[in-house]
DNA sequence: CTGTTAGCGCGTTCAA
DNA sequence: TTGAACGCGCTAACAG
């Protein structure tokens, strides 16, 4: 309620002095500092950050756009983002796109109205196709960093932090091939776009490399959810020639796949091997424990936020992606195919 | 960049008219509206919401304080919160307390500086003990609603939305007892506080009701994480007299428990029954599928946000908790104890 | 229905 | 080292 003016009056100084006390106390006399300190306490003053943000022209807030809260992998990344954000004094505003069902216009406004000093696109891209073209001048939006997402055309110019999804997918596929699998299926989130597209591409590359078939029966498309993992797996199992291994675009799908395979009366990994992506915390305690590609989530989050801070502070950053290392974690959901 | 002033000049009207166009267009002539629309397009105008928020004295932002992003159950609740928030024009700022490791002072500032129009404490409470007492006058913070958390002393005066945790826990415990279990263990997140405390209390009540033992060996304390579910379960299994059933304070702990029991060479539910809380999406695909208490997460989120809106709009709301229904979902992780 | 005027609370000149 | 004065962009109050 009380403002600098009230504090100034109480302390018998000018508002400018109070302002300086708040921002650059080292410029004040010890004596004035004491007076102002007392006055602040006496009046119960607390900053109106609305006014400060307005005056400074920045919000000290960064916006994270993500497909869904409650996804374990993004939880790890957020932890890293938050660590750095809090260190640098930024608050975090989250926009949950509910797996991209949120209309783009809803967001467009906020990005062009000083509400955010920076934006992180966490596993997201599409919301911006519209928003960016909607703006008259492209200079107007705050800095944007892409995290955990591969370059699709609309975001290719932004700096990004991620693993090498194609290489990771090749490693995963090769692991299955080296175990002796011939019929390897791939189930994916939205094919041919972003992360899933890269992972699919890696899968195809590795399969072709070994002259293995990648006919359309083996490749299917869904969302990165348990539900779709289950649905696509059921379809796979009902085919004439079942795959002996399934590579899933993330762990949630893989966990759904394992459930359906067992439910179908088959065994993992004896009848069908399953491999996922992300190494979420549920992967290790799955039955059988899930073989997967681990990503350093927190590290990705931290690097993303550091990148963003750099851009906000004015550094020019080229848009070459920052690649962090992935790691194939071999557990028990993969094994050599059963010889019939 | 361009402001209402520029638009006003371009359109040949006053800034007030531009402002009205933005906020109450129905008060304007069709003709003026057209002129202003054109001018806005011509100048590439976009609102400075920092200025608007400042002028209006509100941020149109609500803050959600939660223990961790990436927890499935809170994800559901957030979905409900977001639905209503977006409908009402609020942005959401999230503070992740990393399971309460975040120092309270870090947050205190923002709650007393107009940065938030309202606050939701989602499964959280403690951060405020300090923050509230720290403020000179208790009137100064924005409205607060508690979601998914039982009244601990420091937050008992705030309105809240949740299930009846004690009744739910009684239902879960009775389910085990009716199956014939005598030695039922309870593993918990931070005992004797909030949700876990209520759940423990329900457990004790049900056990006592049936004259069953609840000695200290059977009750253990941890965080609501997979890790602690595993750790506490291992301890339980190594006791002389093993429990035949374990009631866990949430599903993550329960999933960890199941893993450890199987890992120990025992079977679920034949040797040990396990029951959880929340019905997160991983519960259904667990092996065996997890018996649990389901909470209507989205509904809780929606009701919480509606409550908050009401308070923000000035309604007096009493602090009687809004109780939403829970439901015992019986799957396959519970069964009668094996007769030896 | 529209224009004029004033000021939200702060940070930043410029002088003293 | 401190104070006086101004203005950020917007909206509210009051006239017209």
TrEMBL record, chains A, B:
Residues 1-71 form the HTH lacI-type domain. Pfam families: LacI, Peripla_BP_3. GO terms for molecular function: DNA binding. Coiled coil: none annotated. Signal peptide: none annotated. The lineage of its organism: Bacteria, Pseudomonadati, Pseudomonadota, Gammaproteobacteria, Alteromonadales. Keywords: DNA-binding, Transcription, Transcription regulation. This is LacI family DNA-binding transcriptional regulator. SUPFAM superfamilies: lambda repressor-like DNA-binding domains, Periplasmic binding protein-like I. It comes from the Bacteria.
